[in-house]
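Hello support,

Our group uses your service weekly, and this is the first time we've seen a run hang past the timeout. The protein is T-complex protein 11-like protein 2 isoform X2. I'm not sure whether the cause is the sequence or the server load. Input pasted verbatim:
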Amino acid sequence: MSVPGRASPAISPANPALLPVSNREQATSPPRGVMFDDVMAAAKNLSDMTLAHEIAVNENFQLKQNALPENSLAGQVKRVVHQAFWDVLEADLSAEPPQYEYAIRLFEEIREILLSFLMPGGNRLHNQICEVLDIDLIRKQAEHSAVDIQGLANYVINTMGKMCAPVRDEDIRELKATTNIVEMLRQIFRVLDLMRMDMTNFVIRNIRPHIQHHLVEYERNKFQEILEETPNALSQTTEWLKESIDEELLSETVVSPGTEQSPTASLSPLLVLNNCYLKLLQWDYQTKVLPETLVTDGTRLQEVTEKLTQLKMIACLSLITNNMVGAVTEGLPELANRLKRISAVLLEGMNKETFNLKEALNSIGVQTCAEVNKALKERGSPTLNAEVQANLIGQFSTLGEKDNPVCTLMDKRIRLYMKSLLCLPNTQKSMPPMPGGLSVIHQELELLGCQYANIVNLNKQVYGPFYANIFRKLLFRDETVGKIDASLPTN
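Update from on-call engineer: The timeout came from a worker crash unrelated to the input. Re-ran successfully.
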């Protein structure tokens, strides 16, 4: 029987070439010569790798109930089917004589679930469960209408109480207080599903150190399997690297025109790769497909990018405020923190399509003027005149325009800081200096920068050999091969 609320991890590869055919109606088709089974195997490998990666790098990772949306067709069908089952069960148990077939099937499944919870060495409880929930014996009792359904349910609840985590104690108490036998059985399955999830997350917590220890080798081997099953599995990655190589070669040609040395001879693969990673901070995660080697970190990179965009806007607002009214607000450190908090709240969700940035910036401008005037009044100083306030609000509003010079400046400084993080030696513990104008977001930017650098450094370790192979093919010069191998980390 299928019980409501069963959880299963749903991880979808971001690369269309690795998606199962049923999910790929509008994506690219697999290349000729690649069989359906190969694509499916590659998709499973990527899903396994993504799950292992998530467990290893996300300390808060845990599986949750995979509930269907309330108003979805699938959700409605599920509710109707399950309600029909419980209605039939209630009718069967209320019949004269009672019909026990569905109830027996439930207890058979309950027995298997309880047995699956047992740890090694739990033979005594194993034997007890098998003895009390002896399905053959229950069927014989049913033939004589002598099944004690309530007694069996009570035994199950008491056994669940011995096995469950403390967080489920309240659920067990509620089960014991339930008087309707059908509702009791329904709730037993609900709590069993919660216990199953608790057990799964307990196992995840315990295997995390092992996965972390072997993560680089595991991911690299898994991705090699994907390459063997799907020959074009690095197409997006190749384009990603090629774009930065072309940009770097063009830059060198402009800087040193007419040089006799081959442009590729002085090309640094590590520099190219770092520039590739920096592009991810301006990636359009809604429309552009990520390089295959970054699929496992797609969500994390998107979160970093979105938080960085918000921090950049806060820095821009602070810079304009300091330039325009810094002279009159000097000596009011708490004001700067208050303005920062206001900006952060009003810019929350600014990466969503429905977000009205112009309206938010205007509101921040109005509140900034109000807060500044309030602080000036408290100090007995003259408030801002109407012209200054209008100018401040107007400059805030222009930050949403394309190629705004203040945004461009802050973006360059943030990228410079992020780039300096990627160039830090592994042995260096101190953070690089913070560029000017970013002091208002100093702590947040350091934290975000560390998260970003950790993602990048792990990615380099795992996929360094694959990047080296791509560089060889793109540059195709023997004299660069040794240089490439030495530049990119492989362990």
